[in-house]
Design a protein that fits this description.
- The longest helix has 50 residues, at 227-276.
- This protein folds into three domains: 34-171, PAS domain (Beta-Lactamase); 252-315, Helix Hairpins (Orthogonal Bundle), CATH 1.10.287; 323-485, Heat Shock Protein 90.
- The chain has helices at 4-33, 39-61, 66-80, 164-171, 173-213, 227-276, 283-315, 327-344, 363-380, 411-414, 440-450; strands at residues 83-88, 94-97, 128-133, 139-144, 153-160, 323-325, 348-353, 359-361, 386-394, 397-404, 454-460, 464-472.
- 52% of the residues lie in helices and 15% in strands.
- Bound molecules: adenosine-5'-diphosphate.
- The site of adenosine-5'-diphosphate has 22 residues, from helix 9 and helix 11.
Length: 487
């Protein structure tokens, strides 16, 4: 019962059996109710009657004796298995009975009832036929055709009335059995065909999955077979492609992280060594050493934090602490914190604020979002460029746009920049202050999504990039989010 084939077979068999049972029950009911079951026996009796009466007439004409006539009746009865009764037409009295053991001679044959709906073509007009209850109570089916040559005598040919079960056995059991066998063979054939069409592609899928388990990520299967298996194959192929991409991204990531951690570590080791062995002699040099160590350590800390955050988001250990947030004030604060940096880089940093209702959010996480976006814009925009921050409304959402006139992002990379560890043209676009790890935008997207919002990007290579963050406004009477209790 474990294989698909045996399951299919068993279910087919169940359906076949159930169908046969229903049909058999219907036929049996029909045989019980309808008097049609009597027709074949009556027809047989009428044939025997015709043949036998001809023989009798023949014997009569040849001047046969009464004994010879009796013998003829007895042999006919024995050969055909019918009971022959000879009766007086006037009195209905039985004057001869072929059954010598249970002799009805002297009894009357009366009350022959014609079954409704049964007609026997090819029989004479005065034929008497139907059911008849014998003197001992047994049920019989009798047939008699008057013959002018016999004068006052009527010859009845009778058989025990066939039961519905007998009729069913004689006429329906065989065809039903044949139908059952034919259906069974068809079921086996179908089960084999269906199993093959499913098992083939599934086997291929299993092999491909095995290949992936062994680290061969180029596995693809050709979708074939039934629709459902087709879909599994399609899903498998996209999963395999995804696994391959993720695998490549992980590899890149390890390479990048190692490189990015090594750069500050080298600087820290070098400068601290210089401090230790006295190579940095003057106070100016010592200060430079300390500053460099401080900056590089910060850079490492930032990166490790990013990694930890993403790991937390990925493992589901991340929860928001939402409260009513004045988005305009929050973004403005971030903007202010970047002003010195922008000035140092000779980038014009602008802010344009429209009144925005409060939103429900986690302020620390939102600061993180705008830190990343504004930080990126400043990072990738060359000196002399411009970065603009705009805050406004878009329907039921608050909207913050960070637009720069930096190098832009090529179209084919645009859809990938939110992927973890993804960086445009890895060597070049590391951001001039070397802050990039490819994690910033992945974090931005996760955090914005956790707030029920979305982040969009549009970019034109050579002209600049714009990131738009949309966050839902939860409106209360005082402009504060209705569903969050201020803390
Ligand atoms: P990174 O830490 O490298 O900045 P992010 O996830 O923040 O990583 O960004 C992914 C990539 O998207 C960056 O490496 C950069 O190539 C590109 N990018 C992000 N912001 C901008 C921007 N304002 N202008 C041009 N390229 C950008």
């Amino acid at each position: 019962m474990r294989t698909l084939r045996s399951r299919l077979l068993v279910s087919y068999l169940a359906v076949i059996l159930a169908t046969l049972l229903v049909v058999a029950a219907a036929l049996f009911a029909f045989a019980t109710i309808s008097s049609i079951r009597l027709t074949p026996a009556l027809q047989q009796l009428s044939t025997i009657s015709r043949v036998n009466q001809n023989e009798i007439v023949e014997l009569w004409r040849l001047g046969g004796s009464g004994d010879e006539l009796q013998t003829l009746l007895l042999t006919t009865a024995e050969q055909t298995g019918v009971r022959i009764l000879v009766a007086d037409t006037q009195t209905s009295e039985i004057i001869f009975d072929s059954d010598q053991t249970d002799d009805w001679v002297g009894d009357r044959i009366a009350g022959v009832t014609r079954p409704p709906g049964v007609s026997l073509p090819n029989t004479g007009r005065g034929s008497v036929f139907g059911t008849f209850t014998g003197p001992n109570g047994s049920k019989w089916l009798v047939f008699s055709e008057p013959n002018p040559e016999f004068g006052r005598v009527l010859i009845f040919y009778g058989v025990v009335e066939p039961t519905a079960a007998e009729f069913f056995n004689d006429y329906f059991s065989r065809p039903l059995a044949y139908a059952g066998v034919a259906a069974f063979m068809l079921a086996v054939l179908l089960a084999i065909l269906i199993t093959r069409s499913v098992a083939g592609p599934l086997g291929q899928l299993a092999e491909a999955a095995e290949g992936i388990a062994q680290g061969n990520y180029d596995q693809r299967v050709e979708p074939r077979g039934p629709e459902e298996v087709h879909r599994v194959a399609d899903s498998f192929n996209s999963m395999a492609a995804q696994v391959k991409t993720t695998q490549a991204a992980q590899r890149d990531f390890v390479a990048n992280v190692s490189h990015d951690l090594k750069t500050p570590l080298t600087a820290i080791t070098g400068w601290s060594q210089a401090l230790l062995d006295g190579a940095a002699e003057t106070p100016g040099e010592r200060r430079l050493a300390a500053e460099t160590i401080h900056t590089e350590a910060n850079r490492m800390a930032r990166m490790v934090n990013d990694l930890l955050d993403l790991a937390r988001i990925e493992s589901g250990q991340f929860t928001l602490a939402p409260k009513p947030v004045d988005l305009a004030a929050l973004v403005e604060e971030v903007y202010r914190s970047f002003l010195p940096h922008a000035e140092a880089k000779d980038i014009e940093l602008g802010l344009e604020v429209a009144a925005v209702p409060f939103i429900a959010g986690d302020p620390d996480r939102l600061v993180r979002v705008f830190n990343n976006l504004i930080g990126n814009a400043l990072s990738y925009t060359p000196p002399g460029g411009r970065v603009e921050i705009m805050i406004g409304n878009a329907g039921s959402q608050a909207e913050v746009t960070v637009r720069d006139n930096g190098p832009g992002i090529p179209d084919e990379e645009l859809s990938r920049i939110f992927e973890r560890f993804y960086r445009v043209e890895k060597s070049r676009a590391r951001g001039e202050d070397g802050r990039g790890s490819g994690l910033g935008l992945a974090i931005v997207r996760e955090l914005v999504a956790a707030h029920g919002g979305q982040v969009l990007v549009s970019s034109e290579p050579g002209r600049g990039t714009a990131f738009v963050v949309r966050l839902p406004i939860a409106s209360g009477a005082d402009g504060s989010p209705a569903h969050i209790r201020p803390t």
